[in-house]
Design goal:
The chain is an alpha/beta fold and 294 residues long. The protein has 11 helices and 10 strands. It has 3 domains: 81 residues, Arc Repressor Mutant, subunit A; 82 residues, D-Maltodextrin-Binding Protein, domain 2, CATH 3.40.190.10; 104 residues, D-Maltodextrin-Binding Protein, domain 2 (3-Layer(aba) Sandwich). An 8-stranded mixed β-sheet has the order 4-3-5-10-6-9-7-8. A two-stranded antiparallel sheet has the order 1-2.
Length: 294
């Protein structure tokens, strides 16, 4: 039996190394040298008299004992951080991960409404089209994702089912006399789960079997900007163009409005450590209210 518990600092170094699977990455996160991390891990292993890592060239792998300690230490440090934050910070800071397009075209324009309702909650947005592992990245408190929601996961909450349409400026529609001459803009998604769904499927449903070859952009924001510039027609989520349509900048073709109900949804997902976080529950409830009737 241990005579005393290891120091909190050694557990903190171990947790970062186990989560990032790298002495170098852990050192960067903790702002120390890789040598210091390696030394701290060695001392912890000596103190516990167990091997926690298998050291390989440029990588480290957890042993079975290391896996058990990693699970407990991650939960402990996360809960400690949250408790200290609640005790010492008057304004609750919440970091939300979401896509570049959703952040720019939908969330940011509406965020002031939430801040007026909850002035004590400080919302920070981290926009990135790469999926973040929120159970391991402790800097992220909630993710708003786009794709096929796994509603069997109790930490997932569906927000709204997406629908695609064709959007351009009024002038572009007025000048378009032949649909075959229409210039289409679409998104080439980075998310591997979205790439499984062929764009040809919904283009044929929107336009029939004969349609122009689309031009692709990296994200929906660029697609919408191209349409706003009067260059062509955005094949895009109706959720993301709400603001542009409301302002009269973009519209559907009055003579042939079309819509395709996609298999994709916007949904939230919480890490296990935050399932009872009051501030996140308030934000999640506000998001759901925004999509009522959409």
């Amino acid at each position: 039996m241990l005579k005393r518990l290891p120091s909190l600092n050694s557990i903190k170094v171990f947790e970062a190394t186990a989560r990032l699977k790298s002495f170098k990455a852990a050192a960067q996160e903790l702002n120390v040298s890789p040598t210091a991390v390696s030394h701290q891990i060695s001392e912890l292993e000596k103190e516990l008299e167990i091997k926690l890592f298998v050291r390989e060239f440029r990588t480290v792998t957890l042993t079975e004992a290391g896996e058990k300690l990693a699970e407990v230490s991650t939960k402990m440090i996360s809960e400690l951080k949250q408790t200290l934050s609640e005790l010492t910070v008057s304004a609750k800071k919440i970091t939300i991960s979401t896509t570049n397009a959703f952040a720019a075209m939908w969330l940011v324009p509406r965020l002031n409404d939430f801040k007026n309702l909850h002035p004590d909650i400080d919302i920070q947005i981290k926009a990135d089209d790469q999926v973040v592992d929120i159970n391991h990245d402790l800097s992220i408190d909630m993710a708003i994702r786009y794709g096929i929601a796994d509603l069997k996961n109790s930490h997932v909450v569906a927000l709204v089912k997406d629908t695609f349409g064709l959007f351009a400026t009024q002038q572009y529609w007025a000048n378009l006399s032949d649909q075959s001459q229409m210039r289409l803009f679409m998104t080439q998604w980075k998310n591997a789960d979205l790439l499984k769904h062929d764009h040809a499927d919904f283009l044929s449903q929107l336009l029939g079997q004969e349609y122009p070859k689309p031009d692709f952009f990296e994200d929906e924001n660029q697609v919408i900007q191209a349409a706003l510039a009067g260059l062509g027609v955005a094949v895009v989520s109706k959720i993301l163009v709400q603001q542009s349509v409301a302002q009269g900048w973009l519209c559907e073709n009055d003579s042939s409005q079309v819509a395709w109900e996609s298999p994709f949804s916007y949904y939230t997902i919480l890490p296990k450590r935050h399932v009872d976080h009051k501030g996140l529950q308030s934000f999640q409830q506000w998001l759901k209210q925004q999509f009522i009737g959409v």
